[in-house]
Specification:
about 200 residues, mainly alpha, three-stranded antiparallel β-sheet, 7 helices
Length: about 200
């Protein structure tokens, strides 16, 4: 091993004489921290601002078209009625009072409508008119086949809208003669009209 030590000594001497030096590795300073790999910070998501009350659209409720249309068709404060009601009332006026004055025609319509209001008779116009043994023209074959002039529909509409030629809603009878079942009977045109109960009024 002596020869190895001598060889190393010679090498060092030769290197020193030639001006060459063994590079000393540079170690990082212990005073400064080791460099760290830098990462780009994750992008912070931008929150969408909530709409303010002033910018929020106001949703208007849909209009009730059906209710509005029905209100337009019927006068305020009047009972609802159908075209069938008008036609049936006009037909019975025509067959029972076509020779009478407008007041006589209107009074016949009033009797029908007064019966509808009363608990003693059916509660519909058709029910009252076609009640058995009440209005004899309904038993004729010509009753449904005859064309009814519009003038009678106008009388029917007047009665349906509240116009009356009789004193009160208790007038529920009419006939060609005075009948014993009539209370406080009175005559209008060719018909006698009577009450189902006395109202204390005059026609």
């Amino acid at each position: 091993m002596k020869w190895l030590a001598a060889l190393l000594t010679i090498s060092q001497v030769w290197l020193g004489s030639s001006g060459m030096t063994t590079p000393t590795p540079v170690l990082p300073s212990t005073d400064a921290p080791w460099p760290m790999a830098t990462e780009q910070p994750a992008a912070t998501p931008t929150e969408t601002p909530l709409p303010t009350p002033s910018s929020t659209p106001t949703i208007q409720p849909e209009k009730q078209e059906a209710d509005t249309q029905q209100a337009d068709e019927q006068p305020a404060g009047q009972n609802a009625y159908t075209q069938d009601d008008i036609d049936e009332l006009a037909r019975i006026i025509y067959f029972e009072a076509r020779g009478e004055s407008d007041a006589g025609k209107l009074a016949v319509a009033n009797v029908v409508l007064n019966r509808v209001k009363s608990a003693q008779w059916p509660n519909t116009i058709r029910g009252v008119i076609y009640q058995k043994a009440q209005f004899t023209p309904t038993q004729s074959r010509a009753y449904k086949r005859t064309a009814i002039p519009d003038a009678y529909r106008q009388i029917a509409l007047r009665a349906l809208n509240g116009e009356s030629a009789v004193c009160c809603e208790h007038v529920t009878y009419f006939s060609q003669g005075k009948a014993r079942y009539m209370q406080a009977p009175f005559k209008l045109g060719h018909h006698w009209f009577g009450h189902c109960q006395t109202c204390g009024q005059t026609s």
